[in-house]
Amino acid sequence: MKVNTEKIPLETDQGIIESEERRWGLPLKEVYKHGLLFYKAYTQQTAHGPLDVNSVPPLGVLDVIGRDRRAAWQALGHMSQIQAMAGFIHTLDRLCPSFRPYIEAIQKDFEDKKEQEVKKEQQLKNHKELEDRVLLERDSHNNAKLTEEEQVQRVKDALNAQSYEQFYEYAQQQFPDNVDHQAVLIRQLQDKHYQEYIQQLAVDERLAKSHINFNEEDTFETNDAKKDCNSNDTDIIDSNEYKEDSRDGLPGIDEARMWCRGSVEVFKQSARDNGGTLTVAHGETVTVRVPTHSTANAICWEFATDYYDIGFGLYFEWSKSPTTEVTIHVSEDPEMGRGKHLVVHTRPMVSLVVPIYRRDCHTEVYAGSHTYPGEGVYLLKFDNTYSLWRSKTLYYKVYYTQ
């Protein structure tokens, strides 16, 4: 093969490298390596640089091929390694038309492999991001679950701290000589107490929502009604109900006025000093009977409790009391329903003034007043029938006004 000794018209090796990469789409060394596999030339200049006759071994007498190769090598002069590779590629491209398609196929294969590597890297990246997101969501779910469990445990601890003494006394009464049975019973009572507490929260929430709707519907009908401290405290009597009262032979009853105020501890101390305390056992209803007074025209009341709420309602009994003293009666049910009038053949007729609802009187003092509808006895009912285990301490005051 005749070697083309024409110099490549580029000033520097770097310029040659950039030019060849633009031309072939592959680094110069890569094109050269594949060119060598396709056809060998310029190898001595590329491998060893310019020929130095003093450093190469002498050729044999009969080494014709070696002599021709060395002559061609020497003809390249002081061409650099980069120039030698570029010259080799250009000569091969000129002499062999199939060289360029060969390089283009290699370039296409290289690009395909590079694209596959990029896709694989992107897939690995997406997979890693998905795993991180799943782990993050799992950790978030576990943290939320842990937080919920912590809240439940805090509620249980608070309830257990409040009720332990009472449950302990009850367990000692049931199993006086068996500590293990006492512990089991206390645990059962505490679990049941917690379930009762959760159920009552749900009931209170439903009552609150239902009464909000009731207030929105009746806003324009009760503009003159006084807002009370518990949305379920008063029962509004309309003109139709007055007519029903007349058919029962009883006069109409004005609605009660009710409100709340602070200073719970001051009120409880004052009631305690005046003997106005009583205990409403679990499952019981205590009725405070207050006869009307001949020199008064209205009754007033105030009450509060320790730590827990209690049910309260007010009724008026159409009977003449033989005494003006306040008396207390205990029963195991509220006795009174929610009708306006309860007519019982063996008892005096009774009218509903305020229906029985649970009142948060452990946070505020509940107070109210009612104008006498006539002569009779007021029945202040304190209902603890919904509580299976807890007794309530009640502080109250009842007095007359003119």
UniProtKB/TrEMBL annotation:
Residue numbers spanned by region Disordered: 223-248
GO molecular function per UniProt: fatty-acyl-CoA binding
Segments forming a coiled coil: 103-133
Residue intervals passing through the bilayer: none
GO CC aspect terms: Golgi membrane
Superkingdom in the source lineage: Eukaryota
Entries under Pfam families matching the protein: ACBP (PF00887), GOLD_2 (PF13897)
Domain named GOLD: residues: 264-400
Residues annotated as domain ACB: 1-101
Keywords: Acetylation, Coiled coil
Name listed for the protein in its UniProt record: GOLD domain-containing protein
